[in-house]
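Researcher: Sequence recovery benchmark, item below. Answer with residues only.
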């Protein structure tokens, strides 16, 4: 399953909740304010080793550099959703 995380982990429990439901074959996409997690040291350590994508446009809009995960653009997100099926959205 593909999990889309929308909110900053410093303002919402969405990422922590999604991680508690994560299965071995699942993947995470951090988008909107959730991309903050990919640049924050305490979250980067927790996310290491998890199949993770970080939206490029959202990183750029916030002036952030990711420490963990693979950068994904909108076309890549569409392709990932087409491959994995309907995602589960956390936050919003």
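Model:
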């Amino acid at each position: 399953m593909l999990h889309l995380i929308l909110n900053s982990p410093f303002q919402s429990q969405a990422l922590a909740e999604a991680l508690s439901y994560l299965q071995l074959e699942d993947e995470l996409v951090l988008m909107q304010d959730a991309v903050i997690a990919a640049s924050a040291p305490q979250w980067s350590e927790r996310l290491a080793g998890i199949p993770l994508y970080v939206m490029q446009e959202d990183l750029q809009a916030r002036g952030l550099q990711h420490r963990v995960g693979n950068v994904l653009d909108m076309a890549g997100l569409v392709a990932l959703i087409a491959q994995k099926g309907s995602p589960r959205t956390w936050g919003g």
